[in-house]
Write a structure and sequence with these properties.
Transferase Creatine Kinase, Chain A, domain 1; 2 domains; EC 2.7.3.3; alpha+beta; binds adenosine-5'-triphosphate; 10 strands; eight-stranded antiparallel beta sheet; binds arginine; ATP-guanido_PTrfase; two-stranded antiparallel ribbon; about 350 residues; arginine kinase; Creatine Kinase, Chain A, domain 2
Length: about 350
């Protein structure tokens, strides 16, 4: 199967647009070379995805940090000329010949992750999330409306089978959810935002809100997002800095879902996700933290990036910090174990708190 002349022309146009965009710093722009375009523009996956599906989000959103998504699992290999260098640069040097290590969620080590802020002076809340894709389904741009509905139905059955007293809860479909409830869930950091322009341009918001929703326990400390960016985002969160408790709950919840739903795993790339930044462990462990002194200094960003930490704003990715509160998390998710990913955040945040305490 080959891509149509129109699609190939659009790919050339994205390339030309990126080359002409002097303020664009995305990994897409850097790694979509003339050669990569020439070699890949006519290719199509078995499900019909093309290089255009991979690059259109970054082509439309020139402020993307990364700019590419995989419409289906095959795209990671068929378009590896583009994915591999982007993955290598994002995930701290993970090469085309490297393999994701075996799973280690850290069951045996949760006790080592003692409260980072026992006095409650710095950390507002802690959250660890991972992503999962249900085996047998492609990613958003290749899903039909029926696929979405079938996946949601399957997940509803799984959620209703959870009887653990701490984790059991209710599934709330987005379809029919009143605006007030939705807004509050988003503002309180529990629910995904609507209309993400990066996902929209990647064709990932089709049939919205069908098939999308959120499951959570009563305390909203264990949550599962259904069919937003990934098929599933499994989340554990709570106020304060007790990372061990948050990880322990995530492992418990993840295991309950995993026994009922087989997930898609790649021999080299680990758990498969729609965005290459989330491959491997898929783990983003974060704190919302107040660091008024060190965050005001010029070297704050460098200190964080040297410790492989990512800084986000208070309402998540692409948002601004408010009242001096930052979202600090591990950046790398591939090429290390789940426990190491959490540990990267844990050790880094511990250091940041020491620096804040010592700062004048
Ligand atoms: N430590 C935390 N405490 C409370 N809320 C958090 C924490 N970390 C993230 N959040 C909230 O989770 C929501 C989702 O954030 P965001 O979209 O940045 O990350 P994500 O769910 O990890 O996914 P992605 O990386 O795909 O964007 C936002 O409302 C954000 O404020
Ligand atoms: N939620 C994510 N997958 N975040 C990572 C990348 C997001 C967006 N495509 C960008 O390049 O900036």
């Amino acid at each position: 199967m080959t891509a149509s002349p129109e699609v190939q022309k659009s790919i050339e146009e994205v390339y030309t647009k990126l080359q002409g965009a002097s303020d664009c710093t995305s990994l897409l722009k850097k790694h979509l070379t003339k050669d990569v375009v020439a070699k890949n523009k006519s290719k199509k996956t078995r499900l019909g995805a093309t290089l255009l599906d991979v690059i259109q989000s970054g082509g439309e959103n020139l402020d993307s940090g990364v700019g590419i998504y995989a419409p289906d699992a095959e795209s990671y290999t068929l378009f590896s000329d583009l994915f591999n260098p982007v993955i290598e640069e994002y995930h701290n040097g993970f090469k085309a010949t490297d393999t994701q290590p075996a799973i280690d969620l850290g069951e045996k080590n949760v006790g080592d992750l003692t409260d980072l802020d026992p006095e409650g002076k710095f950390i507002v809340s802690t959250r660890i999330r991972c992503g999962r894709s249900l085996q047998g389904y492609p990613f958003n741009p290749c899903l039909s409306e029926t696929n979405y509905k079938m996946m949601e139905t399957r997940m509803k059955e799984i959620f209703s089978s959870i009887t653990d007293p701490e984790l059991k809860g209710t599934y709330y479909p987005l379809t029919g959810m009143d605006e007030e409830t939705k807004k509050k869930l988003i503002a309180d950091h529990f629910l995904f935002k609507e209309g993400d322009r990066f996902l929209k341009a990647a064709n990932a918001n089709r049939y919205w809100p069908n098939g999308r929703g959120i499951f959570h326990n009563e305390k909203k400390t264990f949550l599962v997002w259904v069919n937003e960016e990934d098929h599933l985002r499994i989340i554990s969160m709570q106020n304060g800095g007790n990372v061990g408790e948050v990880l322990g709950r995530l492992i418990k919840g993840l295991n309950l879902v995993a026994v009922k739903a087989p997930f898609a795993r790649h021999p080299r790339l680990g758990w498969l996700t729609f965005c290459p930044t989330n491959l491997g462990t898929t783990v983003r462990a974060s704190v919302h933290i107040k660091l008024p002194k060190i965050s005001a200094k010029d070297d704050f960003k460098k200190i964080c990036s040297d410790m492989k930490l990512q800084i986000r704003g208070i309402h998540g990715e692409h948002s601004e910090s408010k009242e001096g509160i930052y979202d600090i998390s591990n950046k790398q998710r591939l090429g290390l174990t789940e426990y190491q990913a959490v540990r990267q955040m844990y050790d880094g945040v511990k250091k940041l708190i020491e620096l804040e305490k010592a700062a004048a």
